[in-house]
Amino acid sequence: MSALVIKGATAYAAGLPTQGRPGDVVVVDGVVTDLDAAAVPRNADVIDADGLVLLPGLVDIHTHLREPGREDAETIASGSAAAAVGGFTAVLAMANTTPVTDTAEAAERILDLGRSVGLVDVQPIGAVTHDLAGQQLAELGLMHRSRAQVRVFSDDGHCVGDARLMRRALEYIRSFGGVISQHSQDPSLAGPSACCHEGELSGRLGLPGWPAAAESVVIARDAQLARHTGSRVHVAHVSTAEGVEVIRWAKARGIPITAEATPHHLALTVEQVRTYDPVFKVNPPLRPIEDVEAVRAALADGTIDAVATDHAPHARHDKEHAFVDAAFGMLGLETALAVVAHVMVEGGPFGWADVARVMSSAPAAIAGLPGHGRPIAPGEPANLVLIDPAASRTVDRDTSMSLSRNNPWHGRTFAAGVYATILRGRVTAREGVPTSC
Question: Catalytic residue at 310?
Fold first, then answer.
């Protein structure tokens, strides 16, 4: 028998009777058994959590782990370590690997690699189209019926631009309750070298840009297709006020649509691009403050359902180029909680229960992960994260668990941080160190 006792933490989770009050949590063999540690199990590992916040383990529905194919940028092992340090107990691995995760065999390989590491539950996302080429559907049904039980499908990095193909995908996945996570950006509204937000600043800097409409027109089309098919669409990395308004319109009409925002679209603006630093080149691009404020407000009022990192590690030889030529993306797993706490909790509209909703229970529900995002209650799996709200840690890219160093938060100090992550009763990371290290 394995036992863990968390003493004195202030817990927040859906339906928790002791929400917001310090208390104890007893875990035996990976399951919460009691909310009172009056009788501590023999040989239990005891964590003194006085002053700490306890939430359900974080869930990231948008992670790039690069394996197979680009193990120089990230592996499932290194990405899992970063996730555990960041408070995550489950991550969904995007399909844009080499080869692409577009078959049942490829999906099962990702699942098995994640299980072999064991720091976090790694659930593969299947490609919508074969080789992400946007021409023919991938093996959607076979991936779902495989051991991986794929429920989320995405060509992330590419928009499924063909409306007829998107309709067919939605009709296909409806039979098993799947969801299409769409990279909502119409490539025809910008040239192939577009690399930042289209506006006054891009003109001044001489950088080709994407207009905000490139996002909102795809969201609008997909919302109508979701209504027509009765199937689910999820909007990845919402970044514009226009996109928010379309999602709000669709939800008001009962259309089955959900959405996510990234920490960087909540906290950074297009002004970072002034330096031409390629670490700030992301897709979709960083936007003006008006868009950032709209995304924050939409997360607060529930129009945007979840936070997802879009963790996108890159080797230095892919990122350290002129801005136009550099790869898109930045790291996010280890810093997501701290950034969200800084933007949304510290003087913002959120409490810790809201953080639990947007970073745990809502993403778990979108992805269909039954063991995650659950209430902290007897009988529930002990997938948990302990947060120190007064950690005051400075981000150092050179100490990251990721193999890559494209960290936009380098040198920034955040007040809150992850103290420990617990996967089915086992501590997988504590004070910035995964248990395998």
Answer: yes
